[in-house]
Amino acid sequence: MKAQDALEVLDFEASRTAKVGHIVSTLKRSGRQYAVVAERGSSPHMVRGVFSATQIARQLGVAIPISAVARTFAEIEAQLAR
Predict the structure, then answer these.
(1) Has this prediction a pTM greater than 0.85?
(2) Which among 35, 39, 57, 81 has most CB atoms closer than 10 A?
(3) What are the Cα distances from residue 43, in Å, to 39, 57, 66?
């Protein structure tokens, strides 16, 4: 389970016209393995799907390295403690 603020949420309408490279770039930039796709016009937002870096890599037959991005001081401290 992940906390809600730990999820990358993409707009459903924008993702409909996005190319795979755009999705992969978004996942890499955010440092996340997954991105939830939600329809923002409804309340609450309706989840329409999930993009997975692992699944995309598997289907393309390539490696997609995703580096975690620290977003809080606690995450930075945890990385430095390793």
Answers:
(1) no
(2) 35
(3) 9, 33, 31
The side-by-side arrangement of strands in the sheet containing 34-39 is: 8-11, 34-39, 46-52
Give the tens place of pLDDT for each residue, 49-71. Answer: 999 999 999 999 999 888 777 77
Domain count, the chain: 1
Instruction: For 74, list phi and psi in degrees, rounded to 5.
Output: -65, -40
Q: Which residues contact 50 (CB under 8 A, 6 or more apart)?
A: 34, 35, 36, 37
> From the CB of residue 25, how many other CB atoms can be counted at a distance below 10 Å?
12
Comparing CA positions, the residue from 72, 67, 9, 68 lying closest to residue 35 is 9
